[in-house]
Amino acid sequence: MKNSNLYKGSIVTILLKLLNEHDKMYGYEITQRVFEITNGELKLTEGALYPALHKLEDQDLVEVEIVKIGKRIRKYYRLTEAGTKETVKKLAELESYMKNMRALINPKFREKLH
Length: 114
Prior knowledge:
alpha+beta; Arc Repressor Mutant, subunit A; 6 helices; 3 strands; WH_DNA-bd_sf; WH-like_DNA-bd_sf; DNA-binding; DNA-binding transcriptional regulator, PadR family; Tscrpt_reg_PadR_N
């Protein structure tokens, strides 16, 4: 992944956004969707994904549904009501951050802000 440090602070927001768009998703499905959306630019590893999902679960922002498929167990993650509210907040924070970054790197954009 190029510039992986730039993405690290956004993993929670990425997860919330994806879960907000889908009723429920399981881990591998999330990693594949991120890969597809970013045209392979961002490869979300299990080592980054599951700690973030567990943190969201501990904060009651996501809930887990365990489904048995044949002999396999699959954990589906879905947003709670609090998770939906947090998604709105995180997306607004990210948009503000992106606006400020655009202003810092492109002076012409800064003029449009005022």
